[in-house]
Amino acid sequence: MIDDRLTRRTLLGAAAVAALPGGALAAPAATRALYAGGYNKEGGAGLLPLDYAPAAGAWRAHAAVAAAPDASWGVRHPRLGLHYLVQEGSAGKVAVLRERGGAWQRLALVDSGGADPCHLALSADGGALAVANYSSGSVALIALDPRTGLPRAAAQVVPHRGRGPDAERQPAPHAHWVGFSPDRQWLWSVDLGADTIFAHRLDAAGTRLGETRAAYRAVAGSGPRHLAFHPRLPLAYLVAELDNSVTVLRRGADYRFTALARHSTLPAGFAGKSQAGAIAIDPRGRWLYASNRGADSVAVYAIAADGALTPIQHIAGGGRWPRHLRVLDSRLLVANERSGTIDGFSVGRDGRLSPFGAAARAPGVAFIGEA
């Protein structure tokens, strides 16, 4: 199902894609195999495989994969081609799927060790999978078989500690993001409830967690959500959900971060209620994008040679509640959860966005993955 307020341009574009013979896409033939993960309670039916033709801005959807319900985040094993997907719920799960020739098969389903897992990270050597369990405020580490990529032991769970001043959103920890340090000595986790980036020590094999330290204390009540790393500089960018901000962080030689600057993600003069969502950086480190759910917009920043940010644009996200962003070369895709669409934008030479092509129908979409 899709929002009734889709534009005529979108509907005509979708109809044109569906009408192509033999499952072909509009020229040029080059396509990207993607998938939409999202929430069944919002109309989704599991993982939705999609073909996207960037040059035409056209989409083709395939049958939904029911074996991956409520898949709000996923990562792909680069060597084995496996897909690890969270399954949000009070008893959280992580599913392992393989895609071959358009057919998806679930190989394993394991406990995430907590409630409502919302983010995953795969270690560089493919030997461990980290999980952020939002509602239970914990992180988990799952050791993987290096030959098969399948889980080889139950998750090791480490609870977070702390809370923030927002009584409604921060009465307890809420882990929202996980990522491995480049030196493979630490697992970082961003906690919205505790206003903290934590660092968890990894053992020599990278499959067990040790002591936990605070790597960065965010502004009280800001509700940090996700981190994005600069592709070349020792910098990270932290998007905070509750105060709608992006903070530029310098990554230290150890596990710690230091704040350098902070920017609003909202348009000037905006007075409504909004929550920052996704953050994305183009592969060459020139532009940064952040989404606003409520303001339903995307903020665009130019990244200077030293990593500093300059706001250059705010643009409507094409739908309601933009939850995830994916950069594909000269295209930016926006997953609009509440309107159930993935909207495409052309990225100009200056990083600015322009609406481009048709919108894909993806009910309850929370994440755009690459198949």
Description:
The protein is mostly beta strands and 371 residues long. 3% of the residues lie in helices and 49% in strands. The chain has one helix and 29 strands. It has one helix at residues 8-18; strands at residues 32-38, 48-53, 58-61, 74-76, 82-87, 93-100, 103-111, 117-122, 128-133, 138-143, 156-159, 175-180, 186-191, 196-202, 209-217, 224-229, 235-240, 245-251, 257-264, 275-281, 287-293, 297-303, 309-316, 322-328, 331-336, 341-347, 353-355, 360-361, 365-370. Strands 24, 25, 26, 27 and 28 form a five-stranded antiparallel beta sheet that branches. A four-stranded antiparallel beta sheet has the order 3-2-1-29.
Task: Using brief descriptors, characterize the structure shown.
four-stranded antiparallel β-sheet; globular; disordered N terminus
Element order: H for helix, E for strand: HEEEEEEEEEEEEEEEEEEEEEEEEEEEEE
Q: Averaging pLDDT over every residue, what do you get?
A: 92
Question: How many H/I helices?
Answer: 1
Gyration radius (Cα, Å) is: 20 Å
Helix/strand-derived category reads mainly beta
> First CA to last CA: what distance?
23 Å
Q: In which range does the helix fraction lie?
A: under 10%
Which regions have little confidence, pLDDT < 50, spanning 5+ residues? 1-29
Let me know the largest β-sheet.
Answer: 5 strands, antiparallel
Q: How many DSSP-defined strands? A: 29
Strand content: over 45%
3D shape: globular
Protein name: Lactonase family protein
InterPro entries: Cycloisomerase_2, Haem_d1_sf, Lactonase_7-beta_prop, TAT_signal, WD40/YVTN_repeat-like_dom_sf
Pfam families: Lactonase
Keywords: Carbohydrate metabolism, Glucose metabolism, Signal
